[in-house]
Amino acid sequence: MRPFALGLALSMALPPLALAAETAPADVSIADAQVADALTDKPGDPAEGRSIFMDRGLGNCLACHANADLDDQLFHGNVGPEMNGVAERWEPGQLRAIVVDAKQVFGEETVMPGFYTLDVGVNVAEKYQGKPILTAQQVEDVVAYLETLKGD
């Protein structure tokens, strides 16, 4: 078999390698209230971010934030700011920092949890101890979704 044909045959027979790079929670740097660089090399998916935003078992963002885009969902919270027009109030790097660890942006007084930090507080559910609530890609997906929320 020719070298090219052998390489082609092997590449078709082997499963694809995961080449996506991501920044670990401990390596994320929040400077000037933003995380300038994406946490992964794969762009965020706004549709997936929307699903995470309304998922009561993942982001559970609706528990605290009203969001007109999700009017069909019940029980919007009013603890945090409304998400309507959030993309016009914050830059993507700022949104990323807020989702990663709001306490580093707003201070320890905020009730918003850090979704991509290992410092998630006290009395944390066992399944979340020692790991972030969201993955790096899920953070990017949520940020991509938030970037679609323009206007009131």
How many E-type strands? 0
Shape: globular
How helix-rich are the residues, as a percent range?
A: 25-40%
Helix tally?
A: 5
Main sheet makeup? none
Uncertain spans: 3-18
Any idea what the radius of gyration is? 19 Å
Q: How far apart lie the N and C ends? A: 64 Å
Mean pLDDT: 86
Strand coverage percent: under 5%
Query: Which structural category fits the helices and strands?
Result: mainly alpha
User: What's the helix-strand series?
Assistant: HHHHH
Write a structural description.
The protein has helices at 3-13, 46-54, 86-89, 92-106, 136-146. Helix content is 33%, strand content 0%. The protein starts with a helix and ends in a 6-residue tail after the last helix. Residues 3-18 have low confidence and may be disordered. α2 (46-54) crosses α5 and α4 (92-106) crosses α5. The protein contains five helices and no strands. It has 152 residues and is an all-alpha fold. The longest helix is centred in the middle third of the chain and has 15 residues, at 92-106.
Task: Explain the layout of strands and helices.
Layout: H1 3-13, H2 46-54, H3 86-89, H4 92-106, H5 136-146
Helix pairs in contact: 2-5, 4-5
Please describe the structure with a list of short key phrases separated by commas or semicolons.
mainly alpha; 33% helix; 152 residues; single chain
Describe the structure concisely for a colleague:
The chain is mostly helical and about 150 residues long. It contains five helices and no strands.
